[in-house]
TrEMBL record:
SUPFAM superfamilies: Clavaminate synthase-like (SSF51197). Keywords: Carnitine biosynthesis, Dioxygenase, Iron, Metal-binding, Oxidoreductase. This is Trimethyllysine dioxygenase, mitochondrial. It comes from Branchiostoma lanceolatum. It catalyses: N(6),N(6),N(6)-trimethyl-L-lysine + 2-oxoglutarate + O2 = (3S)-3-hydroxy-N(6),N(6),N(6)-trimethyl-L-lysine + succinate + CO2. Belongs to the gamma-BBH/TMLD family. Its EC number is 1.14.11.8. The gene is TMLHE.
Amino acid sequence: MYLRRFAISPGRISQSLSAARKSTAGLLASQSALLQDRKLPRKLIQSRSFCSKFSSVRETRAMEVSIPKAEFMEFEDHLMLKYKGVKLMLNYVWLRDHCRTGDSINHLTGERMVDSVTIDPNIQPVNVTVEEGTLEITWPDGHQSEYGLDWLLSNTYEGKKHVRATLEPFLWDAAALSASPPPSVLYRDYMADDGHLAKVLHTLMKYGFAFVDEAPVTMEATLAVSERISHVRETFFGKHWFVTSDFERHDTGYTTAALPVHMDNTHFNEPSGLIVSQMFEEGDCGGTSLLVDGFHAAERLRQDHPEGFDVLSSVPVPHQFLEPFLHTTGVGPVVELEPGSRRELKMIRYSMYDRAVLDTIPMEEVGRWYAALRNFTKYIRDPSNEYWFQLKPGQILLVYNWRVLHGRSAYEGGQRKLGGYFLPRDDFFSRARILKVI
Ligand SMILES: C[N+](C)(C)CCCC[C@H](N)C(=O)O
Ligand SMILES: O=C(O)CCC(=O)C(=O)O
Ligand SMILES: [Fe+2]
């Protein structure tokens, strides 16, 4: 990449060489004067500009070596901006496309007003300055763009690597949970006050599950808890569902059998984000609930069996729900990473029962996939990772289905009845964003 121009912005004062480049001598003189004036250390560097427009100019420039608030260099196709110790590489087309001013963004709707594809692919700024925490760029057509430096830091590829996530998940096993149990919130507080709703969302983001206590033992209250977060997601299970041992659906959930930990809705391409449920009637014996942190298990797999982690995160696996008049399929890796990230976990699509025929990999890869599943399952079934509890009527359980797996022990007596709702993941995250939880 060719160096095009170079400029420094010590605090308020910025240097765009574009104005001064007409005369290298003038530039040097003005920069020296500036630097001497401000009694800042300086040194001279030489740089060759290869920019076609200025290719004949060989420029010698003054450079400040004290740590300025922001400094930038203009290259052939991008701007390098150093801010708060982070080097941001900003492609010019990207910059023009992401102009933050009112004629590039509709500030009423947040929508892009720039037609991204009509930007000159070779666009270069005619002037660049940094003033009071804002990067300002003038483009050849006279358009003036502005970008807050902090906005750039938290909205760019390089910047985001350095900005701490507002909320790191707390990956738990049973011991970690009993050492720092998630706080629970009372139904009346949760319903009355957004601060308490935010607390539950925070717990959900951190632990992957949360409780709302002392709720009326009604479906209405369970719905009300759900709708504080988002509209519910109606699926073929209905707008709401009850799980009893009546075999109403062709699913082991609707029997008295034990359910090994699983994710619900693996058979949809987008499984529901939240399961909100309440125990309406306990069985005579058994039917204890179980949660396992799927992200924790995945991180252990990544650490101990990196090759297994790579296999499970890359092989797409089909899942299905089958009834005489219903056949849904959902395909995805067992361990799904956020797009564009090799690090951040997105979803654990894990269900021994609902996994369909593995027809997505050639025979040579099958053995490796099963080995990886065995290793992952070792952590998922490790009793030290299991959180067992008896869900009581009046207690509403919210589970982040993309992360925390759930199950139950077998039970006796036909009375046990669990009911609840599914919520979409996007809307759950939206509420968390709006309440500044993430
Ligand atoms: C009872 N409830 C509706 C919550 C789910 C029951 C079915 C669970 C199923 N294996 C699935 O993943 O969809
Ligand atoms: O009965 C329970 O406690 C859980 C049921 C369940 O997870 C299911 O049906 O998918
Ligand atoms: Fe389930």
